[in-house]
Amino acid sequence: MVILLAGCKDVIETDITHKKITVIAPLNNAKSTIYKQLFWWNEVDGATQYSIQIVSPSYDSLVSIVLDTIVKADRFYATLAPGKYQWRIRAENGVYNTDYQIYSLKMNPSALNLQTVNLTAPVNYTYQGASAGSRFDFKWDLLSRTTHYIIEIDTVTKNFVNPVLIDSTNFLPYSYTFTAEGDYKWRVMAKDSINGLQTAWSDIYYTGYYATAPGVPNPSTPANNQTVAPTKVTFTWSAMPKAKTYTLYLYRNGADTTIASTDKYPVNSPSASKSFFNATSGEVIYWRVSSTDKAGNQSALSSPTRKISIQ
Questions:
Q1: pLDDT in tens, 231-268
Q2: Does the pLDDT at position 3 exceed 70?
Q3: Does residue 10 surpass a pLDDT of 90?
Q4: Rounded CA separation 227/230 (Å)
């Protein structure tokens, strides 16, 4: 192992140099007629990410680099046209990496109706806030033998019967500007009008747009100017519609400096409460709280600032 000094924090990285990745799919020399391929492996203990590269037709006879990316999880999807490929993977952390492991893969020609479209952006369950605006760029992997794509966008409570949008396109990204904030879902189908074939609908991805921040939480307990025991102080506040997380700010003696404790403040909480442990006797602590929605819009801080005294 190696210890890195980063400011006042010690970051310990595991030496993964001699570890090996166990690939689950696709196996070496696999052949497939399904263009949307799942690349899947067992995670390596101590790794924080994986470097993936796909080339055609091979590393010894390189014609094109199809993909070169970093993946944080243990799997991802990529769409490949018919042809021969090699792909390689290695595990990495901030200091070390394993050796690349190389695998061969052949994609055989197949009918469009056996395929599905792989959606790539926005990533599933990601949302845009006021800073990013209401225009979204939708992207997916292109399929061979396709003349156009059908995209549908709808609210999450509806079932694409009368969708918010249905359109045909040949170009990516497909840009759409939402006129109302809220949660949405979307899907794509590929078509070949020459041969009368089409894919099934893709997986449904979820996204949304939020133009305004949630409301400002109202602090509840401890009461203003209350004296509390130093062992544990639980701060509570009103839950706000649309809020996904809350941020609690603790200040010492009225100054805009955060409390030094086993917890690092300001700190996020998924619920409308947060406990503070091992306060220093005799201190005066000031506190405020804000709320943030899933698109990253943050409310103003609660006002006025509340004060408590530690026994």
A1: 899 999 999 999 999 999 988 766 556 665 545 678 99
A2: no
A3: no
A4: 9
Helix (H) or strand (E) holding 151: strand 148-155
Please, are residues 166 and 187 in contact by the beta-carbon 8 Å criterion? no
Contacts for 198 with CB less than 8 Å, ≥ 6 apart: 112, 113, 189, 190, 191, 192
Tokens at residue 135, please? 């225009």
pLDDT in tens, 118-136: 999 999 999 999 999 999 9
- Specify the amino acid at residue 92: E
Read off the pLDDT of residues 151-164 as tens digits, 9 standing for 90 and up: 999 999 999 999 99
Please name the residues in contact with 247: beta carbons below 8 A apart, sequence gap of 6 or more. 266, 267, 268, 269, 289, 290, 291, 292, 298
Ordered domains of the chain (ranges, CATH): 2-110 (2.60.40.10), 114-209 (2.60.40.10), 219-310 (2.60.40.10)
Handedness of CA 88, 91, 96, 98 (dihedral sign): negative
**pLDDT, tens digit, 9 for 90 and up, residues 259-297:** 655 456 789 999 999 998 878 888 888 999 999 999 999
Distance CA 153, CA 142 (A): 19
Q: What is the pLDDT of residue 11?
A: 62
Q: What is the structure's pLDDT at 7?
A: 40
| Amino acid residing at 72 | K
Identify the three-state secondary structure at position 114.
helix
- Separation CA 104–CA 90 (nearest Å): 15
User: Cα-flanking dihedrals φ and ψ of residue 19, to 5°?
Assistant: -85, 160
CB-CB neighbours of 95 under 10 Å: 15
What does the CA dihedral 26, 57, 199, 78 come to, rounded to 10 degrees?
50
The answer to whether 97 and 91 have CB atoms below 8 angstroms apart is yes
CA nearest neighbour of 301 among 258, 247, 264 = 247
Q: Computed from CA positions of residues 194, 195, 199, 201, in that sequence, does the dihedral angle turn out positive or negative?
A: positive
